[in-house]
Amino acid sequence: MKAWFEYNWQVRDEWFEVWDQLPAEELVKERTGGVGSILKTLFHIVDVELSWVRAIEGLEDWEPRFEDYPTLDAVRRLSDDCRRQIRDILSTASDLKLRSVVQVSWHEEPLVYEEVLRHVTAHEIHHIGQLSVWAKELNVKRVSANFIDRGLGQSLLQEKHGPQLRGEEGSNVMVRIKGMNREDAENIALWTYPEPYELYSMDGSEEDIGELLNGDYMSCRDDQGQMIGFYCSGISARVPGGYEAGIYEDDGYVDFGLGMKPELTGQGSGSRFVEEGVRYLQQAFPGKGIRLAVASFNARAIRAYEKAGFERIREFASPIHGRPVEFICMIKDREQQPPSEI
Q1: Are strands 101-102 and 111-112 parallel, antiparallel or unpaired?
Q2: DSSP labels, 103-145
Q3: Which of 123, 158, 193 corresponds to the end of one domain?
Q4: Alpha helix locations (H) across 285-329?
Q5: Average pLDDT value for residue range 162-167
Q6: 112-138 residue pLDDT tens
Q7: 0.70 exceeded by the pTM?
Q8: In angstroms, what CA-CA distances link 123 with 47, 158, 188, 312?
Q9: What is the CA radius of gyration of the chain?
Q10: Domain termination site, one of 92, 123, 158
Q11: Same domain, yes or no, for 66 and 103?
């Protein structure tokens, strides 16, 4: 998806250069098609792009007024500012985040994060077509729509997207999973656990918040919208001692971590929380087994993992907060996935 955003930004910049050659009155003249004028159409493209992306990130609504951007240069500066914001957001878009379920205020049904990104890029391509029609009418140079020869091939090679997340018909999902935003990260970073689980506590520092915002973490809420925990995957779900122990050498597994809100632990809901996380990862990473590391003393977590089908494979030690802690590596082998719908 990053490559398609880069493509749109390149084409948009080239259109700014084309329209820079026209008198200002031509840019604001009402026309048939688009959203009424060349300048309004360019503003609309930028507005829609950032509004959608901020919404699926759980950020504050952004509602710029066209009247505040009356010139081509003003819209171009707005475009550059929005691009910086979106580029930062996309840099943390892990595979797990791309397959997360999101909700926006102006759309009734839940959506998939990557689905929204595809909608946004298609939306701009649609309006660029209208700009091309107007350019022909005005007898000015039209921008090439070619994707090739824009230096974007390497970006495509670096993108690793599997099939989109599909929900199970009739499933009773306990948690609503979405990409971690700063508000949730700040909340989670203040969670503290009683002994002997204090090693899972954070201190609310910017370092802890930054870790939660690195793209590997997903926040989880219940049906009433109350925060109940988080899931993480990839490198963020690993513990340092596991590398020396060699447990991360098999890339046929995705690493899994989770945390429940302290007030909810020990109430018998841990097994369901684990099962929902497993179900989610199996859909996000089809064909992969799931691997985790759990502190040896955490008997209630181990029971929940075993109930979900995890098996112990080895023990190892890892330093946590400056002291050695014994861990157990557990795995759940990959399950046969149904064929994807075409």
Answers
A1: antiparallel
A2: --TT-SS-EEHHHHHHHHHHHHHHHHHHHHHHHHHHT-PPPP-
A3: 158
A4: 299-307
A5: 29
A6: 999 999 999 999 999 999 999 999 999
A7: no
A8: 11, 24, 35, 49
A9: 24
A10: 158
A11: yes
